[in-house]
Design goal:
The complex is a heterodimer of chains A (about 450) and B (about 1000). Chain A is mainly α and about 450 residues long. Chain A has one domain: Serine Threonine Protein Phosphatase 5, Tetratricopeptide repeat, CATH 1.25.40.390. Helix content of chain A is about 45%, strand content about 5%. In chain A, helix 6 (about 125-150) runs antiparallel to helix 7 (about 180-200) and helix 8 (about 215-225) crosses helix 13. The termini of chain A are far apart. Chain B contains 13 helices and 52 strands. In chain B, the strands form eleven sheets. Chain B has a 22-stranded antiparallel barrel. In chain B, strands 10-15-16-13-14 form a five-stranded mixed sheet. Chain B is globular, with a radius of gyration of 32 Å. Chain B starts with a helix and ends with a strand. Classes of the chains: A mainly alpha (about 450), B mainly beta (about 1000). Chains A and B meet through helix 1, strand 1, helix 2, helix 5 and helix 17 of A and helix 1, strand 22, strand 24, strand 25 and strand 26 of B. Strand 1 (about 30-35) of chain A pairs antiparallel with strand 30 of chain B, so a sheet runs across the interface.
Chain lengths: ~450, ~1000
Amino acid sequence: MKKYIYRGLVMAFAVAISSCTTEDLEPTLAQSKSVEESVNKVDNLFSILKGIHSILSTSGYYGQDVIITNEVRSDNAFSNGGSGRYTTESQYVYNNNSDLIWNNAYEVIANTNIIINADVESLEGDVDYGRHIQGQATAIRALAHFDLLREYGQQHTGNGNLGVPIVTEYKGEDLFPARNTIDEVKAAIYSDLETAFSMMDAQYDNTNVYISKYAAKALESRVAVYFGDWSRAVSAAEEVINSGLYSIVPADNFVSSWTTDGGPNIIFELAASQVDNAGINGLAYIYQINDDGSGYGDVTATSELLGIYEASDVRLGVISTDGDFIRNVGKYPDNVNFTDNIPLIRYEEVVLNYAEALLETGGDALTELNKLPANRGASLYTEATKENIILERRKELAFEGFRYDDQLRVGMDMEARGTDGGVIEVINYPSYLFAWPIPLSEMNANSNMVQNDGY
Amino acid sequence: MKKRLNGFLTLLLVLVVQIGFAQEKTVSGTVLDEDGLPLPGVNVIVKGTSNGAQTDFDGNYDIDVEVGNVMVFSYVGFASQEITVGSSDVYNVTMAVDAGALEEVVVTGYVTQKKSDVTGSLVEVSEEKLSEYAAASVDQALQGNVAGLTVSNSSGTPGSVANIRIRGISSITAGNEPLYVIDGVPVNNGNVSASTATSTISALAAIDQSTIESITVLKDASATAQYGARGANGVILITTKGGKYGTTKFNFTSQVGFQNDAIDQPTPLTNAQRLELAAEAYVNDGLAATEAEAEDLITSSGLFAQWDEAGRPESNWQQVLSNDDALYQQYSLSASGGGEDNRFFASLGYLQQEATVIGSEFERISGSLNFSKDFNPSLKFSSNNTASHSFQDAFLERSAYFASPRTAIYFMNPLRQPYNEDGTPAQVGGALPNPLIITRDDFSENRFTRIISGNSLDWNIGGGFKAGTKFNVDFQLYNYRTYGNRNYGYGVPVSGEASQYDRTTAFYVFQNYLEYDFEINPDHVFDLKVLQEYQANRSYFLGGDGNNFADDGLFFLTSAGTPTGVTSSFSDWYMGAYLGLFQYSAFDSKFVLNLSYRKEGNSRFSRDNRWGDFYSVGGALNLHKFDFLSSAGAIDYLKLRSSYGKTGNANIGLNNYQSLFTYGVDYNGEGAQVVDTFGNEDLSWEINKTLDVGLEFGLFQNTLTGSATYFRRNSEDLLLDVPLSQTTGFGEQTQNIGELVNQGFEFELNANIVNTNDVSLSIGGNLATVENEVTKLPLDPNGIERTITTTIDRIETGHPVREYYMPTWAGVNPETGLNEYYVNGVDGETTTNFNDAEAVFQGGNAIPTVTAGMNLNFSFKGFFVNAQGYYAGGHKIYEGWHRYLNQTNVYPLFFYNGYGAMMDRWQQPGDNARYSRATTSGEPWQRHSKYLYDADFLRLRTVTIGYDIPSAAMEQIGMTSARIFIRGNNLATWVKDDNLLYDPEQDLGGETGLETPPTKAVLVGVNLTF
């Protein structure tokens, strides 16, 4: 019997030595790296900055949603519902079930905060360049807060002063923030943009597919115009104009400028290429239908928009009236390989910001305003008025997501449109519908969050 | 790996040591049964040693012994005999059949137990039952055969995945899939498809069901705790066939038949109906004064005009795109047998199954070899090997992809005709291409090769000690290719597009065990087993896509002019465990106690939280073995059993515990990174604590058998994706928080009503209930519960997981013809403004609360009839895609097509209609209770009528037995809710989709043994 017990013990030993330890169970991180241990070089900051730009270019952000939801709610365009997309926004019947840009904008902010809060002195590499990248991240943080504020803030709802939570830390102390006021958010945006401008060194800005020193200033002029901070708008626009880095694209090149990347009028655009693009969830696919029938083509222009251009205006060149609907085919034109960059800040906008700010502050608005029609094959204005400027903005910036904000900031009533383009309902200014509902998922997760009225 | 090799070498070393024990003399003899026939394969062992031999074909043996040794002759089904060696050199033995030894044994996981020693809740499903349902994947045959187990097919497309739930759902965001174990070794199963758009393909579909001997489903903690973390959702043990001593037997089975949709799918609107509704919409919206005027207007332009000119033909896409009488054929040829010290089972199988929609099929060729060899009577080696290659012609069915034929049946504008006048498929324009061309010229194909090799060495050390080692590899090669042609459809703008993705997965399992059986005296029998296990899963993925091909007929990326993407990745996980099993059986199993303890570590958790402890306690009281009952003649079997135990669940994404950057993003042609995972260092096991109490009985000479079971499963520390404030940049964080409870009753009853030589009749059934309730969810800092809500359901305490939650439809207003909803969600005031209607719980989720199976077996002489039915109820199903297909708006009437059911629409004041007035506008998505249906259904799963040709007749032609049969699957279905247009048997997602529906089949088959 002893023999067997002995053999049993040998086997027990065999089992024991073949056992495994905690280390044997260590998973491989093949595609990922730990956040805490992986920011050691200035290059790492640049890599995160690229990641941030990548999020900006997804279809849940500038790749489609921000631009399209604003266009279909304006008098420029509507959803014909061809594939069922964007009818909810076009008809102003949205509810709190959609995240829209809420999650994406805060994802951008989280990543910018990792860069901004990094101790740049301790990193390997060119520390000055590290500071520049921190400036870039700060500017994008401002952009994301501004996007959130214009979409979710209560500035056009008739009551309330709530903006959105300002988030300045990655995994910070308060993971359940309440909403800041509109003024607080605005102040934070201005502060970030000023800091960004001072931190950035233009020598590092050698491409316009990244946010840059003067892009931050251009953005400041946009925010200032939105809030009517006219003198700030004047000075910010002047900084950009006086940099001499940009020019209005001339009439002959206007249409073709949309098929080429990095034109002289581009202050900041998001890169797209044949291998990296929003594809069928991008801008071209939602605006166009190809000859072979591919393309969602839900978002089509109102006949009213077509009516604002003179026959000689080169900007008519981006609009097609073939087929059942009036379509934008010239802005973001590549509906096959989707290679077009998405311009976010064009010099033309800055000139128009400048013109409007000059008008409001008693300057020579007409000269600035006429720079646009002069380069578009259109008649010059004889007088600069608020209406002229807003009209010229509509002509120049159509399909780019500006019109909705322009209509609201001058207090226009809005129109809900059905799938045939007809007006279903006029929504008088102000209205709760001019702020998105805070997403239900946020409301359910964070009881400090206050929902916008009406939802 | 090195360590495990060491272990194996040590084992071999020990074996070498074993050779060389002394012998005195050799004795021989012949072993016969009571009829005087030789018994091959009888074990002859010298008692108390590992010294042994086996009889050969003629029943002869010889063995080296010492005088005074006791030889033990044993053979399954016969009473063991002991003979003391004396002076003789020849000992002939006659063995008698032992009724007691025939007590059923059941595989319960790492061990095999006598039925009376089982303390847990388990159900064994025989090969015969499994073979009654024709499907590529064997798990689908479990439906209705196991109380408390539900099977939900993700699609009726052959080869696709079935979701199995045992006793409800125990987890909200971690997996609810049971663990699959083949021949004692855990394997990976589930969906292997690399695409989220095309058909799923099940890893289990790679297994030929005709190689399976039985499937045992383990339900309670006493049985599943042995599997620790992976057993929380139940365990499905698959036992494959082995060989038996004797001459080689061949078996050939075939089944050939055809299939159609199990129930009629929704009928699309005809063009005439569509025009009628469209004209009404024009009038309702003020675009025309009369319907006649509207018809003229509508038919004056566009597709309606072309259709009008062509003489208003109907197109009938539904018929064109259906594959009526889809082929099903399955063949398998096997051979089994064994020699003195070896046994084998070898098989070849082929299966081909077409889908009921055009352009999709599944094909599998498989082979297996199970071989065992006794190196000597105490050392056995066995190797179970199976390899198969599957091909699935998949299609885009997991959303409403326009290129899918199933989508096109309802989405294709019926004004377009499928064929040209010359009979060729029409190259219809628009966003929806003609699937007749797409399925012919484009493809998306899954190819899946799976090799499973399980090798074990078992050593009967002697003295009650046994040891063994097992090594199993489950090797999976997956290939996915797509092509969009250059001439028609989505490939045109890019001159053809193609992609290819390959995944290689190797899953290793190592097990070593030591077992010690001993008894203090025959009244106190103990069995102790310790086991060590290590599992490693590594997966490599590589793929790319490109477009721009120079010519037709080129499908591979090397011919693509423009490479558009390339990807590769690696993932892995590991599991290590120590297991202790203890069984105590007293007084011939009157009392049985089972204990198990398992310590398990998993790579999904951080180092500090990697290891978890799981245990179970089970007891059984075999009342029929007590004198007071065994003397009462009516009771043959009566067992009271109970178990309680703790199991875990780690079925979450990899590396969730770490806060991570992902580098899977790029920008401007350069690699980039963003934060991806919030991380949670505290992450650890989800815990299930299950109580199970059951009574099993057999009455009147086991003519009436059955069981009743109550279970309660508390799931705690749920691995929950807790919603975060999205201001953090993240949507959720996986945390151990939340609790839910599943409890219910399970009953089984079988009656052998008649059982004579010529006639037998038995009926049986099972019934199971399960009640599910969320009892705890995370709170936010203000103490408010963080619920999780979607457009159709909500997770909240006091309710079942994902109870449907949406505004309540109040009907169509007879005066206005508009849809109305209850403002408070329940009753009273109504509104036409959807956003003003409150969402409320609708009662019930997508999981049945009551399921039942019924079966009948009848035979008369050689004829037999077997039938099985299945009922599921108490759950609901939401209709997907109704915005586009089942609302009287612009989508069905002008853009796409919809269901004929919409003809029941409001036309004029006073109408009581189900559908609102037709409109030319496109309504946004509004999900409400009109499209939520009771999903209760009753289905005749299988009917088989057959004849066993008398063996005398077969022997004359040199065969042993033959069976011919005709079989029907899903021939009849009753659906409770008349408004539910789709098949009620749906994926657990809770919404109907545009996947292939379940099928009904009629098959004929033969089963020959020779």
